Amino acid sequence: MKARIWSRVTPYLFLAPALIFMSVFTLYPLVAVGYYSFTEYDILRPPTPVGFANYQHLLNDNVFWLSLRNSFVYLIVTPTIIILSIALAIALNRKLPGISFFRTLYYIPVITGSVAIGIAWQFLFNGSGGPINGLLIWLGVIEKPIVFLTEPDFILPIAMLMTIWMGVGYYMVIFLAALQNISEDLYDAALIDGCNRWQKHWHVSIPGIRPAIVFVAVISSLSALKVFDEIYILTNATGGVLNSGSTIVFYLWKQAFRLQNVGYASAIAMVLLIITLSFSIINVRLLEQRDD
Amino acid sequence: MATIARSQTLANRSRMTLSSAAGWYVVLGIASVVTIFPFFWLVTTALKGPNDAVFSFPPQWIPYEPTLHNFTRVWQQITVWRFFLNSLFVATCTVILNVTVSALAAYPLAKMRFPGRELIFYSLLATLIVPLELTYVPGYILAVRVFRYDDTLWSLIFPNVFSAFNIFLLRQAFQAVPNDLIDAARIDGASELRIWAQIVLPTVRPSLATAAVFTGVTSWNALLWPSLMLRTREIYTLPVGLNTLRGMFSADFRLIAAGTIIAIIPILIGFIFAQRYFVSGLSGAVKG
After folding, report:
1. What are the transmembrane regions (chain B) (predicted)?
2. Is A280 found in the same domain as A201?
3. Domain boundary among A11, A33, A55
4. Closest to B166 measured CA to CA, from B131, B215, B206, B199
């Protein structure tokens, strides 16, 4: 009898730690954010309900709309990163001497982390004599140095370049693994069918790594929508001149932890939830289409 | 006929590989320069003496008065090795706890029948949609008001123990384990915990590595949440410590560069030893 009860509760015991951590650190915050978003709250005093005031404020908040726009513009990094990392994976997917050295090298930006890279990036794009300005002047593209990181038009593209540069090595490894799963016979068959070297990648490699492409598209687009580190580091936590580099997560952070508008920040968090939710639905649809 | 055609294409291919090897090295070389250049710039800046220009037109590529003075000064003023150990501690604890909890939860979802299984499964699935960033505001209030573990390293570990992504990854891996293997052990009287630890876990090592790499890299690179939680310099993680470095030596870029390199070197050494696991871990993500 005792043994039977024991075997009945076993599955729940296995699940218990995960469910406890999920409830405390994911479900509770979800409910709390929903509640805070209808209140005025500065952490020090208890929240006071204000109805839809925070959401109404969002509609008229230009910085919020700019941040939202910037987050969507940031999605350009996803196709770029996919193309570059597939190209690099194809270049690495051959038996040449020293190939593992290159693979290690390209992975280094992934492990050095965004702060170290952000610091290097600030040096490179420095407006009073960084090497990028030096290069552009030498090439004759510009005459005077550009103070890139305080130019409203440049901060977002530079942050995107940094994201791409940091991410290519990471996604390259995923694509490389997928490429190595493709049978050699398929390439031989493609050659017999008269494919040239480039065509064989188009007809064999790309279809063969399609699941990996979908996977990378999902994770890289979600992380692009939620970009924070690059903006925070490159603008020294200011969000750029006139908030030009502000993104939705950056604005959430600023409202919550710089301005102590926790209620308003929670409303921004709810918008973020709706965006990621719609994205997930689109992704599921795409995955289903693929299975048909 | 087919075999002849095939061996000919194979011969063609190897000839083509030889002739195009140089071309591929050019591609790989260009990508290497783009990868290395920011690091090169940090190194050259860190080696510059007081009379070498950090920023100038044209840029000064090589220091005229190379010196290690910047490194020794940074080393004396901030304890980069301590930031490194803090990061290592947080990442290790997070990985161990997260992978254990995920593997425990994934086992009954893959291999047991019980009431509520579907409900639990779909609740877990739903949490995948909740962005981590959404939890920061209530998480902060929890940390400061309820658990009072802000400004400790535990505040960086516990919120990252649960990962629906890892549970799904491991559930899929467990489903591939033959039922006969588990049933045989059950008949022999082994407890479920023992079956989990001694039979199921060893067969899904590649997926465990994948979960560990994803979790570890995320924890190692985390900046936003740790900078909200940590105030005492002694317990800064590497990203937080590096970020304050810029404020400390705001005027002297040589010192900032030197500090950044001191922080990168142990990461590089660790990575060179562990890269086999990184590569096989990430590879698991697509085989799943």
Report:
1. 21-43, 83-107, 119-141, 153-170, 255-274
2. yes
3. A55
4. B215
Do residue A103 and residue A21 come from a single domain? no
Looking at the 3D structure of chain A, how many domains does it have?
A: 2
Mutation target among A112, A139, A215 for the B interface, most CBs of B within 10 A: A112
Looking at beta carbons, which residues of chain A come within 8 Å of B1?
none
Q: Lowest mean pLDDT of A12-26, B78-92, B184-198, B204-218, name the range.
A: B204-218
**Boundary residue ending a domain (A55, A73, A90):** A55
Of B41, B243, B272, the CB nearest to A131: B41
CB A188 within 8 A of CB A278: no
CB contact under 8 A, A131 and B220: no
Residue B79, pLDDT above cutoff 60: yes
- Over residues B17-37, the mean pLDDT reads 84
- Max intra-chain CA distance, chain A: 87
**In 10 A of CB B222, how many CB atoms?**
23
Residues of B with Cβ-Cβ distance to A272 under 8 angstroms? 131, 133-134
pLDDT at B288: 40
Task: Tell me, yes or no, whether A200 and A240 share the same domain.
Answer: yes
Domain boundaries, chain B: 17-67, 78-244+274-287
The ipTM estimated for the assembled molecules is: 0.88
* Model confidence pLDDT, tens digit, residues B127-165: 988 899 999 999 999 999 999 999 999 999 999 999 999
- Which of A5, A23, A26, A266 would best serve as a mutation to test chain B binding (most B beta carbons within 10 A)? A26
pLDDT digits (tens, 9 = 90+) for A254-290: 999 999 999 999 999 999 999 999 988 887 777 666 5
Residues A67 and A43 placed together within one structural domain of the fold: no
Task: Say what the pTM is.
Answer: 0.89
Q: What is the CATH number of the domain that holds A170?
A: 1.10.3720.10
Give the structural domain span for A8: 2-55
Express each pLDDT in A133-192 by its tens digit: 988 888 888 888 888 988 899 999 999 999 999 999 989 988 988 888 888 888 888 888
CATH topology of domain B78-244+274-287: MetI-like fold (1.10.3720)
Instruction: Tell me: do A169 and A50 sit in the same domain.
Output: no
